[in-house]
Hints:
Blueprint: H1 3-14, H2 20-31, E1 39-43, H3 49-58, E2 61-66, H4 69-72, E3 81-85, E4 98-104, H5 113-123, E5 124-135, H6 140-151, H7 161-170, E6 175-179, E7 184-190
Helix pairs in contact: 2-3
Amino acid sequence: MGFFDWAAPLVRRYGDRFTAEDVATIADWLRAATAPGGAVLDVGGGAGQLAALLADALDAHVTVLDPTAKMLEHVPTGDRITAVAGSAEDIPLEDSAYDAIVVTDAFHHFRNQDAAVSEFARVVRPGGVVLVLDLDPRPLAMRVVALAERIAGEPGAFMTPEQMCAFMAAHGIPGECVAEQGASYRFLGTVKKEWPAA
């Protein structure tokens, strides 16, 4: 059983870390691309706590994508929230189906970040946005966290803000990285390229 399988009930019960202010801020970052009734994809969205709050804040439909079935069992599905099993590297959803993607504290868990970002560019419409909230690995405490994740069998593939911005731009999603509290930072970019038909 993987880490996220046994952690799922704990994440659902104790993982409500987003305050009303956090959600309002995240919604503001997404609102430029997400009109009322729009569609947001929460990649690595776990038990769906943020998705439920964003659905209300944006008056949008939010799809939670997560590879862990036990996490998805806890997603509060309803008229505006859908749970989908799948990985960031192979998103089982249609091209240009979303106005925005949000990834909170999950990007460093992706085992193939190149494939994941290529999928972001595919499923978000041109002009839509990608928001990634992650942690800068340079502080000592974060180096310890990254090591602990790797020991636990996770990739622990953290990027600095500069690396994240360059990486996203190379995949057709230019944007900017801004420091938040502590080691946290956000990347907010716009999907610029048309995804070629298969």
